[in-house]
Amino acid sequence: MEATEVKKRVLLVEDEAIIAMATSLELNDSFIVLSVGSGERAIEMIRSQQEDIDLILMDIDLGKGIDGTEAAKEILQIRNIPIIFVSSHSEKDIVRKTESITSYGYVMKSSGIHILAASIRMAFRLHEAHNRIREKNSELQVAYNKLESANLQLIQSEKELLDRENEIKTSGERFRNTLDSMIEGCQILGYDWHYLYINESGANYGKKKVEELIGRSIFEVYPGIETQDLFFTLDEAMKTRTHCQKEMEFIHTDGTKSFFEFSIQPIKEGLFILTYEITERKLAENKLQNLIQLKETLMKELQHRVKNTLAIVSSLLSLEASKLDDEAAQKIFQNAQTRIMTMAGIYEMLYSKAESEFQNVDLDGYIQNLCKTLLEVCNVENRIQIHCDLDATKADLKNTVLICLILNELITNSIKHAYNEQETGSIYVSLKKEGTSAILTVQDSGKNHPTGNPTTQKGIGLSLVKILAEQLGGKLERSAPPEFTISLRFAVLP
């Protein structure tokens, strides 16, 4: 044995350089940490075998390029290597994406370095255990084949019988010694549910001693086991003679519960069962699910409070405006109230959707709803109509909010300035998609707009439009008078 254990090599796949650096430094005491910034680079490193990697810490959201789950799938096709998903997302849909991938856990970035390090060590142990189980299963099959062959040869002659008896004895001792030394629980149950064999690890998992189990039935040493899902699975495997690998709960005689990974293999004597305890991992998974549920509850409460707060602010502005005699001051309050009510409408539309849709929003649907809301808020639906011609377009949540705010200012501007209080008219809104770009156009035929280029005027509304367009990374354009037409080009999802 060496004086010090050789450090395992861990590949950290993280697109945020600062997070990658901090995580590497914190893990360097226990592991050798290499880091790459993309899933493509991780795949290339594994395929080229540039570094001898023992485990991969995979962030799910890797920015541009493929995400962590896709990278993990490709890596596992190249090499059988333990992968732990590390993410700041606890959303149910994101967690579910990892369930179809062979991984060794899902750790929140906020869990802390000690939990991450413990998860890495557990993953190494699980991976090594799985490898040992596969190797031992292969050894068992080889040994079993040898025994079958020996039985046929024993019939041929008395001399061969004596020789084969010695061979079987030696092979059996070797096989038993192998099982006795395994950290996995190994047990053989007969058709009458009596213990024919169990190693020390298997007995310890059940909080018993080997001598308490051998020769006794499972019903005798574990009263009530016949009501557990574990027994139903064992009974099915015994009757159908089919292999089964499953994670199940086991209730001890003292009432405590543990979780195990069971590999159940029918054999000539009955059933051969390998077990490995995964209680810590299951408790961590349950804790994560509870945190997800708590987050969803808090989010619903936050959405409710924000909506109520916006309604209260709007009502307060309305009350204060009613006390003013100055018409200009009243308009300022009314404009503020309109913006708040519009914001509330946008907020309600966005957050009525599932959280998983926030990065893939139907922009055309939100624009259609916003136009309807604006007519109701401004109380002009009887004399002004908004005509929409919208291509199906996808955008993320942040850009959707900016676009809706810009559209709010442009439509409100047309309602206030294009037509006087007695005139009827129309406002035309179009959204045309061109590849990864889209053009949003607002047009009216009113005659009362101020002269000059709206994109350079200093009014609060159009100044806000210019600021929001710059934040969006878009480009504002206006057609030549007399028609009022403003277009905004911006990037959208493909």
Shape: elongated
Overall CATH architecture of the largest domain: 2-Layer Sandwich
CATH topology of the largest domain: Beta-Lactamase
Number of helices: 15
Helix content: 40-55%
* Share of β-strand residues: 15-25%
How many structural units, i.e. domains?
A: 4
Span of the ends, CA to CA: 58 Å
How many beta-strand runs?
A: 17
Q: For the report, how would you describe the main beta sheet? A: 5 strands, parallel
Mean pLDDT: 82
Domain Response regulatory: 9-124
Keywords: ATP-binding, Coiled coil, Kinase, Nucleotide-binding, Phosphoprotein, Transferase
GO molecular function, one term: ATP binding
Protein name: histidine kinase
